Amino acid sequence: MAEVIHPAEIIDTIEVGELLPRVMKMKKDGYRLSQACAAYIDEKFQLSYSFADDTTYQFTTLRLVVDTDTEIPSITEVVPPAVFYENEMKEIFGVKIKMISVDYDDRLYRIKVKTPLGPNTEEGGRNDG
Question: What tens digit of pLDDT does each residue of 16-28 get?
Answer without folding.
Answer: 999 999 999 999 9
